[in-house]
Design a protein that fits this description.
Helices cover 59% and strands 6% of the residues. By secondary structure, it is mostly helical. Helix 1 runs antiparallel to helix 2. The protein has a domain of 69 residues. The longest helix has 33 residues. The chain starts with 11 loop residues before the first strand and ends with a helix.
């Protein structure tokens, strides 16, 4: 699905460090796919944290409390990244919309 963007906005954005890589389709990615990837990572992290907590609660000897805490923090960081990415894009969009032509 192609993202719907206001007239004049590019459909792709460069990844950090893309200038050092080869240019072309592989050097850019759409914002929608970047955000979807961040949300998927957050979802996977949340599942891993829930699984680790459930295994620890079931007295699984292979899971320690430190692993549960680490998994929960990874999920937290992934969620914050996705939220920050969304907020920065909305801020950029609002700034563009308020620009006088």
């Amino acid at each position: 699905m192609t993202p719907i963007l206001p007239i004049g906005l590019p459909a792709t954005i460069e990844r950090p460090g893309a200038a050092t890589r080869a240019s072309g389709p592989d050097a850019t990615t759409s914002f929608a796919s970047t955000l979807a990837e961040a949300v998927d990572q957050a979802r996977d992290g949340e599942r891993a944290a829930s699984d680790a907590a459930a295994r620890f609660a079931a007295a699984d000897p292979t899971v320690g409390i430190h692993e549960v805490v680490i998994a929960a923090e990874k999920a937290n960081v992934s969620l914050r990244y996705a939220t920050t990415l969304k907020n920065k894009m909305l801020d950029a969009y609002r700034e563009l919309m308020n620009t006088q032509v």
